[in-house]
Prior knowledge:
Layout: H1 2-31, E1 33-38, E2 41-46, E3 52-56, E4 59-61
Antiparallel strand pairs: 1-2, 2-3, 3-4
Amino acid sequence: xxxxxxxxxxxxxxxxxxxxxxxxxxxxxxxxxxxxxxxxxxxxxxxxxxxxxxxxxxxxxxxxxxxxxxxxxxxxxxxxxxxxxxxxxxxxxxxx
Length: 96
């Protein structure tokens, strides 16, 4: 009976490993890359690393330098607001 139980566990472990391998192969084959056309150039974008490779008739060119440029903009604005309030007090019957 003990041998049968280990055989059963080994079978399920093998099924799990094969299922994982099939899932990884499917992801690698069909879902890892997305393709974009920008300005007449076809790019392959890796969904995991976000690496962009240019596709050409001669092959795939992934040796493009990464653009690490950043832009910072600072804007200072000074605003002055003046508020005046006038109140007119009318006293009736005083000083007549």
